[in-house]
Amino acid sequence: MATALGGGLGGWGSAHIQDGAPRSWERVTGGGEAAWAGPQITGSWGRLAGHRRPRRPTNQAFPGARAMAADNSKQFWKRSAKLPGSIQPVYGAQHPPLDPRLTKNFIKERSKVNTVPLKSKKASSFHEFARNTSDAWDIGDDEEEDFSSPSFQTLNSKVALATAAQVLENHSKLRVKPERSQSTTSDVPANYKVIKSSSDAQLSRNSSDTCLRNPLHKQQSLPLRPIIPLVARISDQNASGAPPMTVREKTRLEKFRQLLSSHNTDLDELRKCSWPGVPREVRPVTWRLLSGYLPANTERRTLTLQRKREEYFGFIEQYYDSRNEEHHQDTYRQIHIDIPRTNPLIPLFQQPLVQEIFERILFIWAIRHPASGYVQGINDLVTPFFVVFLSEYVEEDVENFDVTTLSQDMLRSIEADSFWCMSKLLDGIQDNYTFAQPGIQKKVKALEELVSRIDEQVHNHFRRYEVEYLQFAFRWMNNLLMRELPLRCTIRLWDTYQSEPEGFSHFHLYVCAAFLIKWRKEILDEEDFQGLLMLLQNLPTIHWGNEEIGLLLAEAYRLKYMFADAPNHYRR
Amino acid sequence: MAQADSPFQPRPVPGQPSVSKLVLLGSGSVGKSSLALRYVKHDFKSVVPTVGCAFFTKVVDLGASSLKLEIWDTAGQEKYHSVCHLYFRGANAALLVYDITQKDSFHKAQQWLAELEKEHPVGEVVVMLVGNKTDLGEQREVTLQEGKEFAESKNLLFMETSAKLNDQVSEVFSTVAQELLRREKVRKSHTPGNEAVDLNEGPARQARCCAH
Asked: What superkingdom does the record give (chain B) (predicted)?
């Protein structure tokens, strides 16, 4: 296991990246494996329907956690935003305090989400959802009906299954083509032309299922991607080496601009558009809106931002000096030793000015949230916000940007916005970081339960070699997969998390399950405890880009659809 | 971990070294991960704070015999202690690491020892106190003598290291491995079957597959 041994220290260490790369590359280019979603799903359905075995007691090392999980399992699957750590704040805890216009929007938004499945009985679930979200220009203005219908999660699961399977089948079909073409020719440049033209041709054909194909057309060039630098460019999420901007991307961007500049941004619509990814150009403002930090009303935005930024620097003035006082000393010391170790390989984060910003953000957050305080891992969560808000002022590559070239005002805006948006995120997952980290223990148990139902083979494989889910998934929950994915992928993932109700607190579980199952072949190939652990803590994702995250999210969406509201589905 | 409580006594696979579980304990940023990285990967670089734990494995070659170490590198922040107990279980050896330039981390190492002894009777686990960062000698806050005295008072092994300069790092692990083997021999010759220090009690998982 020399390759997987890598950095092994839990991060994106350079050695780890280097070692992981060849494996990952093989995986990406290898014909059958690349289309992991398709064949594998059918496999798991087979397993699901086939074997039902009595559940064995698990995780003896955590008897308490087990009992807790058993108590909560029902509630968990029937999750109704009542659980501690659910992410209501996305809608509810607005800054500024409740604005009636926003509330109206929220209600409207909810009802609109609900209308989605009702409009068409035939095409529901992901298919319909994707159509509504990714083909923004297809959406008319006729969505004003108000329904107080049940949530779309309660839809007939058969429909969900069928459509989800169809989506995934389409995914795999589409992916087969270019792979085949590559295997028949060794001339890469010529082949590239072929791929490019085929995707162009697809673009010009504006058929009804563009929503399914378009997110995938980039994937077709996947086998031909250039090798990304070891420390991948964080600002550039387009890792596939695709042309700068397609017609479709331009249209999408236009749709975003329209939404964002309208007098009252339709947040429901914005979520729909953002689910499949937010264009880089409009990401900062979109994230501020999605997190509930910025009001939907354009007129109020400037004032709100000004007020919130002043409020944050008021905290700094009031509290930051207390960092060296006895009762805050431990908190500050821990933050202080962690900050230089946050993203150690990216020059941006080694600049004193940036480190000071991180320290202030984390310290203020920690002392304002004494129930959890600062917990290692929270430091990572500032990073995506910081990078996204910084990107507003930076044309070139963010990772090597010298922040001293920015004005004081710009830096203050970035800092305050990062603080507030991170606070919003953490509001939804605070039980991950309170004493004994109950949120994490609960979610790891939920992951185990879910995997035991969707992929018994993997689950049994872990049991056989005595791998505990907590041994690898603790970090997945604690750091929201940030240690497992390149930063550009985390940013893309968060586009969706912020568009999805309870994205960080709930949907993340399904993403973790999809992520685990994505490696099922590699997992089943490992035949001892050590090999499994080395694999699981060094999963080779360094080459991942939007395509992989898109597939991961589609699979997660399917799982959520199948299981979130179905506590007894496929119970073993 | 489960195997510690298991009555099942696995035997090592013939021809394979026996497996011992070693945990790295100590407060944040004292160099636990760096020691492991230096030893396992012969590398030193900036590392991110460990979340939960990280796992390594390495075979220690001791001339006539060899021993496979499963190294569990734990997170230093106290908030993680609830999770850390999971990694104590079934440990055969522990490194209590402190930073010689941080007096506080020396006190924390002593607290870690108390934690460890709650889970394991004194003497059951091979414990070494490790003062790291000797490369920062001019900022030293804990003298060699202090470390030594504490280690002697608690009957621990003791060494000072620099993961950065690769000073005494492999010696730490091989000394612990030697001690593990020595105790195993003593145990075998004195009270065969006694579970006091049973190397094979550890996570010799290959041998356990047949149980399923």
From this structure: Eukaryota
Average pLDDT per block of 10 residues along chain B, 212 residues long = 38 67 93 96 90 91 90 86 73 96 95 87 90 97 97 96 97 96 85 50 39 36
- Identify whether the C-beta of residue A519 lies closer than 8 Å to the C-beta of residue A548: no
How far does B67 lie from chain A, in Å, by closest CA? 15
Chain B residues inside the 8 Å CB shell of A532: none
Alpha-carbon gap, residue A164 to A125, rounded angstroms:
7
Widest CA span in chain B: 56
Whether this model's ipTM surpasses 0.90 comes out as: no
What burial letters (b/e) apply to A199-221, b meaning 16+ CB within 10 Å? beebeeeeeeebbbbbbbbbbbb
Contact A376 B86 (CB under 8 A): no
Question: Is B54 close to A9, i.e. CB distance below 8 A?
Answer: yes
Rounded distance between C-alpha atoms, residue A146 and residue B8, angstroms: 64
State phi, psi for A369 to the nearest 5 degrees.
Answer: -130, 70
User: Are the beta carbons of B56 and A5 separated by less than 8 Å?
Assistant: yes
Q: Number of A:B CB contacts under 8 A?
A: 132
Displacement of CA A343 from its chain's centroid (Å): 18
Contact assessment for residue A505 and residue A440, using Cβ atoms and an 8 Å cutoff: no
Q: 3-state class of B157 per DSSP? A: strand
pTM of the model: 0.68
Instruction: Classify strands B65-74 and B18-25 as parallel, antiparallel or unpaired.
Output: parallel
User: Would you tell me which CATH number, out of the four given (3.30.1950.10, 1.10.8.270, 3.90.79.10, 2.60.120.1060), belongs to the domain A291-427?
Assistant: 1.10.8.270
User: Does B12 contact A at CB distance below 8 Å?
Assistant: no
- Its CATH architecture, for the domain A438-570, is Orthogonal Bundle (1.10)
- Whether the link from the prior residue into A96 is cis, omega within 30° of 0, is yes
Domain assignments of chain A as residue spans, ordered by start: 291-427, 438-570
